[in-house]
Amino acid sequence: MDWIEPFYTKRSEWMGPTGIFASHRARAASIERYSGAGKKRILELGAGAGGTAAAMADLGHSVIAIELSPLRASFARELAQEARQGQLTIIEGDYYALNFPEPFDLICHWDSFGMGTDADNRRLLRRMAEDWLAPKGCVLMDVFNPWWWIRRAGTEERDEERDLMRGYDFDPIGGRLLDHWWPIGDKSQLITQTARCYTPADFLLLIEGTGLTVELFAIDGNIFRAGESSTIAHPLGDALSYFVKLVLAG
Questions:
Q1: Which sequence spans correspond to the domains of the chain?
Q2: How many CB atoms lie within 10 A of CB 198?
Q3: How far is CA 102 from each of CA 121, 128, 131, rounded to the nearest angstrom?
Q4: Which residue, of 193, 195, 241, 250, has the fewest CB within 10 Å?
Q5: Which whole number is the average pLDDT over 214-237?
């Protein structure tokens, strides 16, 4: 996973700090629906430039946000210096290697699960269950959907505002998305992120033995559960990723 920090640092050099978007506010607001009312002690893994972490802190939560990229962590620290209803702490580092003195009511992992191998991803899930999550807590996270990425493979998008190109591809053997970025007109600077995509059935197999179990899946607020029958017309077929709520097993 040596590519992760250089990729996100370079992309952030191109894109700059992002601040707090409406999408960050909406994500933070959804926490109450899925994890219950009340102020929570939250751990966010892979916090990026800190937009969602800051939005959660604005709702009164106590948030510890972990980010590997020094540049993105510096953007997040700028947000942490602003007055907020709750608390926001930014830690620059590798969350696989970190320990905390107290467990968390909620663990969030937005838009970045699956960066490692299946073994890496299971290791992270076990750390959530064994080391970080409070007995009645839950995990909320996104999982990349292979069908969306397969359909987009071979296409490109042009971002005139940031002077960037984005190209989509997919590794069908490894089940991994390939997300390419480069400055318009200079493909020699191309950088790529990759992540394991899981169908819900594959994800249920992945979490076996990790100490976690799926309570629900969701897309755009619409809940679906393991064991439900469906067809290809299901909204999952058109979703870049889907949302998962995990709780401690047994």
A1: 4-144+198-248, 148-194
A2: 24
A3: 23, 13, 9
A4: 250
A5: 85
